[in-house]
Amino acid sequence: LIIGGSIAAYKALDLIRRLRERGAAVRVVMTSAAREFVTTLSVGALSADHVFTDLFDRNDEHDVGHIRLSREADLLVVAPATADLMAKLANG
């Protein structure tokens, strides 16, 4: 789950809860703008996993965390999908 920066970011917390209730393992990446609306602590508590906030995290690079994310994911959800985030994803 990629959480973008929008007032609707709080809805991602409910999405995480609902996915976990159905047995899904949820790994979360938060943009810096998303962290203005919801905390990594609340997201981490609901997802029961580490919350990724940077591409290269010094604490996670021993297992190359950013590559592990792409290899383990069956599905990618962007919520909320802000226009800015979608433009960045589309254009690199």
Question: Briefly, what is this?
Answer:
The chain is mainly α. It has four helices and three strands, in the order βαβαβαα. The chain has a single domain (2-91), classed as Flavin prenyltransferase-like (Rossmann fold, 3-Layer(aba) Sandwich).
State the order of secondary-structure elements, H for helix, E for strand. Answer: EHEHEHH
Mean pLDDT: 89
Query: What share of residues is helical?
Result: 25-40%
Number of strands: 3
**Structural class computed from helices and strand pairing:** mainly alpha
Question: What is the architecture at the second tier of CATH?
Answer: 3-Layer(aba) Sandwich
**Number of structural units classed as domains:** 1
Largest sheet: 3 strands, parallel
The percent range for strand residues is 5-15%
Query: Uncertain runs with pLDDT below 50, 5 residues or more?
Result: none
Helical segment tally?
4
Radius of gyration over alpha carbons?
Answer: 13 Å
Strand order of the largest sheet: 1-2-3
- CATH class division: Alpha Beta
* Cα end-to-end separation: 18 Å
* Form type: globular
CATH topology: Rossmann fold
According to CATH, the homologous superfamily is Flavin prenyltransferase-like
